[in-house]
Amino acid sequence: MPTAVERLSKSQQKEDTRRKILESAAQVFASKGFHGSVVDDIVRASGTSKGAVYFYFESKEQIFFSLVEEYVTTLAQQMHVAVQRGRGLVAQVEAAVATLVRSFHTHPALARIVLLDWPNAGAEFQGKRMALKGMLVEILRGYLDRAVQDHRIESQDTELAAYVWIGAIGEVVVRWLNTGRPAPLEDVIAPLTRLLLNSVGLVPTPSASA
Amino acid sequence: MPTAVERLSKSQQKEDTRRKILESAAQVFASKGFHGSVVDDIVRASGTSKGAVYFYFESKEQIFFSLVEEYVTTLAQQMHVAVQRGRGLVAQVEAAVATLVRSFHTHPALARIVLLDWPNAGAEFQGKRMALKGMLVEILRGYLDRAVQDHRIESQDTELAAYVWIGAIGEVVVRWLNTGRPAPLEDVIAPLTRLLLNSVGLVPTPSASA
DNA sequence: GGTCGGAGACTGACCAGTCAGTCTGGGGGC
DNA sequence: GCCCCCAGACTGACTGGTCAGTCTCCGACC
């Protein structure tokens, strides 16, 4: 006889199972990589069954992409919100960088998946990958374009700069994932932001206003 | 009865087979990724046999790693040579960046392997990966440290800057691999170098001398 | 006839995905 | 309020295919 506390409606249980599978998958993929992980690992970690996994997801790949897509979308939204709050161009850029870095910091498993494990095999999924990364690039590029329009920085290839920024941030996070340095990842935010702002010719004065 | 023209000593033949296997493996890995490639693909592409492949290499992974190690080592040497030739710090940095970009440009298959495949090739590879990447980072970092000593740039975290540079270059090359832009990859060398030099506070004047 | 580079059929482990069946919550009839 | 029924969530043994790596044999050269 289950206690009232443990009661869960059927639909709650259902959502719960899906969540558990997804969360376990994140852990498993992060620790063993996509190809190193076996669906049975996810089954074991989630305390469900193979049937349940295939009830909610079409395939192993689909689990992976649900994970990535959900995360990247959230990330883009967070960046957007953080930037809205920032007053002044420099502050906004700082907010964008800080959001990315902090998010990776709090979700190392997802960071690992997004930055290291993203499988490059499936040609169909290569498109999605480009699209999702492009989303982040476009956001950064938008800020840079605005900076150019406002004559805050010289006219330049802002798309290139956006890719450079994404690459730079990714590499720094990867270093942290692999070596653990710097101890709190957040320590890189300030110097990293400075490097990025410098690169396009924006001087990182503390209180600049667009 | 083989003609005299076709004559090859046994040892020449031997070296030839090994080369063919390695070159074919580069093509195969580049087009299908490590996990998507099957040893029989390499056998087919090289026009040899499974026996030959396993005569020269211990395992599929070992083929992959031979490829990567050889390439990265060559790359580091080329960078070293190119930089030696450069007169002045800025020119040296330009030479380093140009060498990396040009090498990836002329060896797109290897670029693909190193930049896209390698990261998710398996946990055993990560250690070696860090080591080899560290090699490149140390080279760049060396130049930056010298720049600091010479008071050409402000004192800063040069290791971070080196990672930022590597990440930036990698991302730009990956964009080229995925989208084909910019048409001749070499077009990015100048603006990319400018971004990188700016990032650490080095003004890219055409004829500066240390 | 011995050795060595090479061929390619074969093996066995591994694993994504299936499916026939079980269990359970809750809706509808009384 | 009770019970019956069944949708549909969930189970896990099983399958079919794949593929890294092995083994045996062959032919060329010494």
Can you walk me through this structure?
Chain A is mainly alpha-helical. Chain A contains nine helices and no strands. In chain A, helix 1 (10-32) packs across helix 2, helix 4 (60-85) packs parallel to helix 7 (123-149) and helix 8 (158-179) runs antiparallel to helix 9 (189-200). Chain A is elongated and about 60 Å long. The interface between A and B is large, with 41 and 39 residues. The first copy, chain A, binds a DNA duplex (30 and 30 nucleotides) through helix 1, helix 2 and helix 3.
Task: Give the gist of this structure.
The structure is a homodimer of 210-residue chains. Chain A contains nine helices and no strands.
Q: What is the alpha-carbon Rg of chain A in Å?
A: 20 Å
Q: Please indicate the percent range of residues of chain A in DSSP E strands (runs of 2 or more).
A: under 5%
Elements of chain A, N to C (H/E):
HHHHHHHHH
**Assembly type:** homodimer
Distance between the termini of chain A: 64 Å
Structural class of chain A: mainly alpha
Q: How many separate helices of chain A?
A: 9
Total strands of chain A: 0
Characterize the main sheet of chain A.
none
Shape of chain A: elongated
Mean pLDDT of chain A equals 86
Which pair of chains has the greatest number of interface residues, and how are they split between the two chains? A-B, 41 and 39 residues
State the low-pLDDT regions of chain A, or none. 1-7
Percent helix of chain A: over 70%
Task: Please give a handful of descriptors for the protein shown.
homodimer, 210 residues, mainly alpha, 9 helices, 0% strand, elongated, disordered N terminus, DNA-binding
